[in-house]
């Protein structure tokens, strides 16, 4: 009888292990130089904890700083797909300087915060008397658990397209810099040049500058909305792959 009872206990199904929550790993401090691209070393994982279509939200970025992947959803706030992490970089225009605390959230498609971490983006004053060192990032203290999206190989881009993308990022960064100064007309011209080169976040930023629902966030006095122009550039942003453009169009309503 004892042996039978023991056998019954041994045959009980094992309880599944609790799923490990997702983690974001990034250096505590990132040094970025002006007029340069600085790689942002951000990893997420473990792979099994990442829901489908999860993405990163980065808050606290200087408005003059642009990212090479994702798109701006508000001044200083960017949404970045996990597939863009292997090549994610910050583009810092000339004249930017200072230190900013960046909050990085991992969000589900429904907007639920799954993980959060912080880092500091430090833009030093350029040293005009000696050559500038290459941008560096302080490595994390422990080996990160990296999801499959972060381990993916960088996308293969044809050389002419890559050159256009670099030019577009430069125009976009200049547009953000002008927008921060309140020169919206000049910013729009740079956004349009970047959008014409196929940069979705530039088309989205241009549409935002005309959108009556978004102008209050820009904190610019006397700026006139233009719903027709906003629709035109939201449609262009959607064609270029900006997921948020569709929701912005729905909020604008029918023409």
Structural features, described:
The protein is of the alpha+beta class. It folds into 2 domains: 23-151, Immunoglobulins (Immunoglobulin-like), CATH 2.60.40; 159-252, Tetratricopeptide repeat domain (Serine Threonine Protein Phosphatase 5, Tetratricopeptide repeat), CATH 1.25.40.10. It is built from 8 helices and 11 strands. The chain has helices at 2-10, 148-151, 159-181, 184-196, 200-208, 215-218, 227-239, 244-252; strands at 23-25, 29-31, 36-39, 43-45, 55-59, 66-67, 71-74, 77-81, 89-92, 98-107, 113-123. The strands form 3 sheets. Strands 2-11-10-5-8-7 form a 6-stranded mixed beta sheet. Strand 10 (98-107) and strand 11 form a beta hairpin. The radius of gyration is 22 Å and the shape is globular. Residues 1-12 and 128-160 have low confidence and may be disordered.
Radius of gyration from CA coordinates: 22 Å
Major β-sheet, in short? 6 strands, mixed
Amino-to-carboxy terminus distance? 81 Å
Indicate the proportion of strand residues.
15-25%
Report the CATH topology name of the largest domain: Immunoglobulin-like
User: Percent helix among the residues?
Assistant: 25-40%
Annotation, overall tally of beta strands: 11
| Number of domains as seen in the coordinates | 2
CATH C-level class of the largest domain: Mainly Beta
Helix count? 8
3D shape: globular
Rounded mean pLDDT is: 76
| Oligomer kind | single chain
Which architecture name of the largest domain does CATH use? Sandwich
* Helix-strand category: alpha+beta
- Any idea what the CATH superfamily of the largest domain is called? Immunoglobulins
Q: Low-confidence segments, ≥5 residues, pLDDT <50?
A: 1-12, 128-160
Record the strand order, biggest sheet. Answer: 2-11-10-5-8-7
H/E element order: HEEEEEEEEEEEHHHHHHH
